[in-house]
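Hey everyone, long-time lurker, first post.

I ran two proteins through the pipeline my lab uses and got sequence/structure pairs for each. Pasting them in order. The first:
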Amino acid sequence: MTRVCLIGEDGSNLQYELLSRETAREALATYDLERPFENSLALRTVSIGAAVSLLNDLNWYLTRFVDAALVQEPSISDDEWLSRSLATELRNGAIEPAETAEFCKIYGLERVDAGLEADEEEALDRGPENESGTVDAADAADSDSNDAARSGAVEPTYRLVEPLYVRRTDGDLPEYDLRDVEDTLVVRLTEAEYSP
């Protein structure tokens, strides 16, 4: 399965911005939504074509609320992501999978302090019901994670910080050295994204 991950812009609440708008909510309704990083939303699709199509459907929202749209295709790599542009080129046959590894952006993964923000606590207390008293499907899907958050059984949350643009040489990527981080996330880019 191909994964899609949307990283929200600073100062926006991505989950709220997408799920509070009918068109975006309907486009996402058939997917199981996850939150792998702070201010992110992730899901699985059946193929890279379906992933690119979904991103195209959400384009209006992506330009306003999303800092990065990432795609992970297992036939390319199990642990590296593709930028939206690179995924689109792959889907269109403009580039071969073996040609995707040279240009990359490495994000540091920084642990976010445990504890819920005030608006998240309020949402947990309120539960999945909306103002009309009905249950939204997306909110209901989050209710299990809300219960886990109340019980303290929440896994650590990470945020993506300070990307480092690198070029793979002889199959190796340079080390991330912009700050001390627990882990990193590699995103493969088009040449144009690497050197705009």
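...and the second, right after it:
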Amino acid sequence: MSLIEPYLSQLSHVLAILWFIICWAGYSRYAAWKGRSTACLASVLHLYREDWMRRMLLRENRIADANVVGNLERNAGFFASSTLLILAGILTVLGASDRAVSLLADIPLVQPVSRGLSEIKLLCLAIIFVYAFFTFSWCMRQYNFTAVLIGSAPMLGERDVSEQERKAFATRAAQVISLAANQFNFGLRAYYFGMATLSWFIHPWLFMLVSTGVVLVLYRREFHSDVLEVMVYTQTPVTEPLKADL
């Protein structure tokens, strides 16, 4: 039985990382597919961005619109810089993996593993946050593109620009903003699943359970959150019937 236990332990870690990949990639594909036919945060916010761009074309002063884009870009920049700090911490722990393994071994309920496996876990965690950095940095660039689009937007009362061109510009600008927001969303998902990867250092089965829980949390917030219900709700004014004079 003692000869089989190491193989079972290795198998549990392989199953855990495979389940993690299935949860992450599977949910991303499912959310993109379901969002085409069901109201979700991404689809509803895209409609609001189209309204935003159409109303921007009716304003002569676009300073407020540029400030909004700048704030969105700063949010992505904050996460990008935070990701670099997290990567620095992971690389520091990787350089002192022996001490990290000994510290984890003293924690109750933590499955003892070899130094090599611990380093693999840290490398996987580093890869996740490297991916997050690239998504946030690409998000920042796309918000830069949006600022350029706002600067090139046709002015109110410009006669040589047709109404069709204005509508096409609003649609195009809203799509660029939505692409940037999608990259920001991908980066946040990397943070969610990066937090789930921390449970792998405790036990592979816990890692699988937490990965499943992250999918449920993401699905709940994307498709059934309270804020989504508020954004899709449009109050219809009720007209009271006229009362007959008695």
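Reply from user beta_strand_b:
Welcome! Quick read of the second one: The two ends are 94 Å apart (CA to CA). Residues 115-151 form the longest helix (37 residues).
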